[in-house]
User: Fold these one by one.
Assistant:
Number 1:
Amino acid sequence: MDYFRIQGGRRLNGRVTVEGAKNAALPLMAASLLTTGRLRLTNVGPLADIRNLGTLLDRLGVNVHFGDDDTITMQASDESCSEAPYDIVKTMRASICVLGPMLARRKRAVVSMPGGCAFGTRPIDLHLKGLAKLGARIELEGGNVVASCDRLRGATVFLGGANGPTVLGTANVMSAATLAEGRTVIESAACEPEIVDLANMLNRMGARIRGAGSPRIVIDGVEALGGCEHRVMPDRIVAGTYAIAAAMTNGDVILDDFPYDSLLAAINHLEEVGVHVQKLDPNADDLRCSVRVTSDRVLRPTILTTQPHPGFPTDLQAQFMALLSIAEGNSIVTEKIYTERFLHVAELSRMGAQVYRQGSTAVISGVRALHGAPVMASDLRASASLVLAGLAAHGETVISRVYHLDRGYSNMERVLTALGASIERCKETKAEPAEDSVPSIIPAIRGAGLTARAARDT
Ligand code: EPU
């Protein structure tokens, strides 16, 4: 199992291009099940989750080709299979995004229930409710969702839940509705930029979708969709993570392909604590522009609450907490999407952070400096927060189980090394503890020459 060894305290300096978004790419890939046309995605990083979904699509009769230049080409050639098996779905919760497309086109979809993840139960009731509204018959059998239909029929679907709208649920229902008969209206739809990216691509394939990015999406069903080529949007969470890394090391970093428009809440909080995110060209496209990130010497505290987009993203909460742990004063972080998403707290505390958690709220009392320690990565974003803490800490930090990071950040250690960090990937030789290990289905990550392991946390 790989681990990172970080010597902290180096200022980050330099220029980095933000990679394509994992959470956009996954539902875009699943859309290959909606057509026998050829789909070509560009700007897709060599990530474990992307590989895993490629393996699943392959089992579902889609020819998947990973190019050397961050492209994936997909074309369904055998539409007879409609079962997404547990051995793959268990490795990645986001496999659920094949459900809507497969049902709409093949009229039947059996997808193993994804189960919970490291930070909560992660239900899929809203996905199922939405598809049932479109006329799907849904049963739960032996741990599988078994969905079938004749042709789906358009309907008005309300997708709000106790913690807000559902992102992948919106992706599932919106994708399925493209082939339904008549008009579907999704109310309380997720407004995340990844939904807009998906709608843009589906429209290029021949779908008729309006309103993506707002809480009301209207889809007029069509008879069939074709192929297309699509460039995946930049990853807002990766962009935010590297911006925080620059801030925590008192660095000076330029980020190209920065999705400014998708990160307004995070930028607002960064500015509150004394981080400057300056657009290099004020007239540049806000969907992908170049920004320079610098910070004041002394960071200030803030109060933040995670919310559905355009609010502060839950996927940046852990990283922001690492930043607040070295701000001067007390900050308050409330997690409203996944109330148990605090696995990073105990590990950050091992590095000297002062965090007091009560329920879904944590009070962070900023310290002068963190100190290096051996810590353990537990899920994707929690792992990222430990890397950030390690970069800013005095001394050496050793982070085990970095396979979590490989799911969502392409070659993170190479990116950070290029910016001047001292971070090295090492191989552990001794035997693994068995209880929480999940077997790998990924032979190798392209380009990085690394083996990665998968666990369900996204
Ligand atoms: N929820 C329900 N019922 C459902 C679905 C969701 O109650 O049927 C609840 C969830 O428990 C949660 C809230 O609704 O409290 C939002 O969950 P959502 O369905 O939006 O999450 P998701 O679509 O499964 C995606 C990202 C996550 C990200 C969330 C929230 C992907 C592959 N995953 O998950 O990303 O945290 O949206 O923004 O797009 C990550 O990248 O680290 C990650 C976890």
Number 2:
Amino acid sequence: MARVAIVTGGTRGIGEAISVGLKNAGYKVAANYAGNDERAKGFAERTGIAVFRWDVCDYDQCQQGVAKVAAELGPVDVLVNNAGITRDATMRKMGRKGWDEVIDTNLGGVFNMAKAVWDGMLERGFGRVVNIGSINGQAGQYGQVNYAAAKSGIHGFTKALAQEGASKGVTVNAIAPGYIDTDMVSAVPPNVLEKIVARIPVGRLGKADEIARAVLFLVADEGGFITGSTLSINGGQHMY
Ligand code: CAA
């Protein structure tokens, strides 16, 4: 039986590449999205992947969304917490709203979704959770106290939850992408982005597919001994 995977923010950017990669590898995929119906419809038509709309910030919507996916595709074996937003601004200019939106989506959403699938994974004795963190959660970034805090939180969350799932067949890992060629990164002012790319030893932005293949590696049935780890995929920009 094909395993069932949910990818949050799964119709765009890195999430789109993950959804498609999982589908091509034989998974039954549910791509979650927050609000852009038009784009999600196009994605579903293009890829044949089922799309489900809910807001990861909303605890109840996550519970209902996961129940709907389970009813239509089957119990959820794989969760990829990919949904994320930026509201970049220096500390002087950042308001409480820009802080809350990023923390609620990027970190609160990870809790809400993990909570919604967790009991089922433990009961069935199998689960794979992959959380998409960021180089900027590891190293910090000028203008991103909100995003860096949320992504850094994801890395701590991953290590804590991995300990709870370890003896039950449920692994929890993170990927920390560097600067990947997506809409999110192209929103960085060109003069700033140019300086960032100049600091990437590989000499270019990453590709979404280069993150997707790492997800496939981590969620494989054979991946049961990999848990609590963070895979950094950043072209050598940050090593430690
Ligand atoms: N280090 C030091 N100084 C910096 C700096 C940096 N990295 N970036 C900007 N500055 C300085 C500028 O040189 C400027 O200095 P002066 O006033 O002395 O000239 C000052 O900060 C203000 O810069 P801006 O004019 O750019 O100010 P702004 O308010 O218009 O914008 C900003 C500030 C929003 C932070 C903007 O610089 C920006 O968007 N930076 C990109 C942040 C970034 O990398 N975001 C990542 C998005 S992609 C992502 O998050 C995915 C992922 O996981 C990797």
